């Protein structure tokens, strides 16, 4: 169950980061509220996952899901540039997440 909590926490990290961008520095009300609610939920799920998962593993995977997810959302939703260097960086992040998962066994 901890891995499910961690996956959901990482996905919510993508949500709050995306809505933080849309909040225009917390000026727009609805995106600001979504940011705060998703942030609290993400932290709560991360805390639940950390009950049984090692700190280093849980935190690394949580931030990795958020980083790769935000990278994808940035490209798909916000039209951010995509180039070889960014793709290599995202690939290395994913490889690191897989290795952390394997190391946790």
From TrEMBL:
Which keywords annotate this record?
A: Cell membrane, Membrane, Transmembrane, Transmembrane helix, Transport
Q: Name one GO molecular function term.
A: transmembrane transporter activity
Principal localisation: membrane
Q: Is Isomerase one of the keywords UniProt gives this record?
A: no
Q: Name one GO cellular component term.
A: plasma membrane
Under Pfam families, the record lists:
Multi_Drug_Res
- Gene3D superfamilies this protein is in? 1.10.3730.20
UniProt superkingdom: Bacteria
Entry's InterPro entries?
EmrE-like, Small_drug/metabolite_transptr, Small_multidrug_res
> Where is this chain's protein located in or outside the cell?
Cell membrane
Q: Name one GO biological process term.
A: xenobiotic detoxification by transmembrane export across the plasma membrane
Span-the-membrane segments of this chain are 27-47, 59-78, 84-104
Q: Give the membrane topology, semicolon-separated if more than one.
A: Multi-pass membrane protein
Does the keyword field hold 4Fe-4S? no
Give the matching NCBIfam families.
PRK11431.1
- Family named by the database record: Belongs to the drug/metabolite transporter (DMT) superfamily. Small multidrug resistance (SMR) (TC 2.A.7.1) family. Gdx/SugE subfamily.
Protein name stated in the entry = Guanidinium exporter
The scientific name of the source species is Spirosoma oryzae
